[in-house]
Write a structure and sequence with these properties.
Elements (H helix, E strand, L loop, with lengths): L6 E5 L6 H12 L2 E4 H15 L6 H10 L2 E6 L2 E6 L2 E2 L7 H10 L3 H15 L4 E5 L2 H5 L5 E6 L2 H11 L5 H17 L12 E4 L5 H13 L5
Helix pairs in contact: 1-9, 2-4, 7-8
The structure holds 2'-deoxycytidine-5'-monophosphate.
The site of 2'-deoxycytidine-5'-monophosphate has 14 residues, from helix 2, helix 4 and helix 8.
Length: 222
């Protein structure tokens, strides 16, 4: 049984169920939960509001440096503030996610956000979730998981949450987002060599959390 408050890195593509699983795993272990995608989404929202896009890396870097981002864990979940304004819901729009993915290809944007993520993790007892946590942000994490699911399953799950969007359009957007997240030169989405790959296709959320918790709690190999 793991008693030390360790660091757990969970990566994977959009819609694989990693966010909900990571949050529940953190609650079960009484660990802190950090959703690194929220930081990228804040940057995406700010870019949307300020008319900044990925074509001007210097403008994007200057914008990121000027942002005051505050992420805190409250009774009703994670709360995200941008320059003192509550943007918890505003960052969840597909538009903010798209912008986030586009700006996430810029090294200056990533460097600024990685420093923040490492500061969160410094005390241990944390579950951090994203695309490059096990590979780049926290390469020394005690536990690394790469949570994934088939494209069709991810499209179905998203469609169940957003029935107003056409299933095929969702599927196309997922394939496109995967391509960009996996294909970027800096910190592409991929499993760390020492990560355990967990395929959630056909698994319920409770089953995914059970699989992760079991692996975290099992005794270390001699
Ligand atoms: O996990 P999410 O959908 O909230 O993330 C939005 C985008 O942010 C995602 O398409 C890519 C980027 N991102 C990243 O590049 N690195 C991370 N650690 C987390 C998110």
């Amino acid at each position: 049984m793991t008693t030390r408050r360790s660091t757990i890195a969970i990566d994977g593509p959009a819609g694989a169920g990693k966010s909900t699983a990571a949050r529940k795993l953190a609650a079960e272990l009484a660990y802190e939960y950090v959703d690194s995608g929220a930081l990228y989404r804040v940057v995406g929202l700010a870019a949307q509001e300020r008319g900044v896009d990925g074509t001007d890396p210097e403008a994007a870097a200057a914008m990121v440096a000027s942002l005051e981002i505050d992420v805190s864990e409250g009774a009703s979940g994670q709360r995200v503030l941008l320059d003192g304004r509550d943007v918890t819901r505003a960052i969840r729009t597909p538009e903010a996610g798209e912008r986030a993915s586009r700006l996430a290809v810029l090294p200056a944007v990533r460097t600024a956000l990685i420093a923040r993520q490492r500061a969160y993790a410094a005390r241990g007892g944390i579950v951090m979730e994203g695309r490059d946590i096990g590979t780049v942000v926290l390469p020394d994490a005690e536990h690394k998981f790469f949570v994934t699911a088939s494209v069709d399953e991810r499209a179905r799950r998203r469609h169940a949450e957003h029935p107003e969007e056409a299933l095929e359009a969702i599927r196309v957007a997922i394939v496109e987002r995967d391509r960009r997240d996996e294909g970027r030169a800096v910190a592409p989405l991929r499993a760390a060599p020492d990560a355990e790959v967990v395929d959630t296709t056909g698994l319920s959320l409770a089953e995914v959390v059970d699989v992760l918790a079991l692996k975290v709690r099992r005794p270390p190999r001699p």
